[in-house]
Fold:
Amino acid sequence: MKNFFRSLIVMGIALSGSIQAAEYPAAFKISSIFMSGPTNFHFRVISNNPGAWHCHNGPKNPSWSYINENDPGSKGMMSALMAAYVAKKTVKVVTEGVDTPVGHMCHIIEFQISE
Structure:
């Protein structure tokens, strides 16, 4: 049992180094939405400004951020972002930069929709 808890602590320390502080990119309109596998940056929101950033050193050209299907509240968040896309509303996301094997990605943790 001690080894199990030690493993959890080591994993927590390892993971804590890969997630950055919250970032607040400029508001944008969603130009498109891309969906892939449930844990492979599942629901991607692509900005209408290809050179914009969603998190420091995140994907550009096109600029995008993501929600995974297993994120808490993901279905509601995906539905709201899809509605914002269809209605051509402005979105302001809050992201966390996450280091992954394929590079630095921008994980959506919250957002606001406005005119």
Notes: Residues 93 and 111 are 4 Å apart (CA to CA). The chain has one domain: 20-114. Residues 20-114 form a domain with the OB fold (Dihydrolipoamide Acetyltransferase, E2P) fold (CATH 2.40.50.50).
